[in-house]
Each structure stands twice: as C-alpha cells, then as structure tokens.
Specification:
Low-confidence stretches: none
Distance between the termini: 45 Å
Number of helices: 5
Radius of gyration: 15 Å
Helix content: 40-55%
Shape: globular
Mean pLDDT: 92
Order of helices and strands: EHEHEHHH
C-alpha cells in the first residue's frame, strides 16, 4: 500500500463506507464533521474531525500527520482496531441480540 492518510473532504455523508475501508487498511482519517464521519472517527485517536469549511485547520491536521510518522502510525493502528466493531461478525451479533429481545 502506498497511502498513509485518508482524506474525506465531503461536507455531508450518511455513513461513508470508504472511511471504514481506509481504517481497515490502517489509515488515519482527516474528515469534515458531518453525521456519518462523526460516528466513524474518534477525534485524536484514529483521525481528526474538522468543522465544515475550516480548510485552514484541515490543512494543519493533515500537515501534522504528514510530518509526524509516529503519530500517523499510532493513529493508523487505532484506526484498524476501532473499525472492528463494524465487521460482519460483530454486526450479526448485534442483530441476534435485537431479535432475541423480540
């Protein structure tokens, strides 16, 4: 893999699967805050969430990751770990719990 950071520049999303795909590859995420990204990225843990249209802060956080290999590596490992709750096995267990409640 040649990528080391994932950028999400959309201002609106539902649940961007591409973020989960990037995180599963160990990429920290820099994204604008919107409904879908806020559910998938934990600020400072596996990426950065930026207020919409704050391109200055977006560029600053991107620069931080570009220039800090250790931070990028740690956040990438955190990204892989945090996306595991969306794996099919985890989701199917949640569905089974809901069905059992019926």
């Amino acid at each position: 893999m040649k990528s080391s950071i994932f950028l999400m520049t959309s201002y609106t999303e539902a649940l961007p699967m591409v973020i989960l795909e990037a995180k599963s590859c160990g990429l920290p995420v820099v994204a604008y805050k919107c409904e879908g990204t806020m559910e998938l990225v934990t600020e400072g843990y596996d990426g950065y969430l930026i207020d919409n249209e704050n391109s200055e802060l977006f560029n600053e956080k991107l620069g931080n990751l570009i220039n800090d290999f250790d931070k990028r590596s740690i956040m990438g490992k955190n990204a892989m770990a945090s996306c595991s709750k969306f794996y099919p096995k985890a989701i199917s267990q949640l569905w089974m719990q809901q069905i059992e409640l019926l």
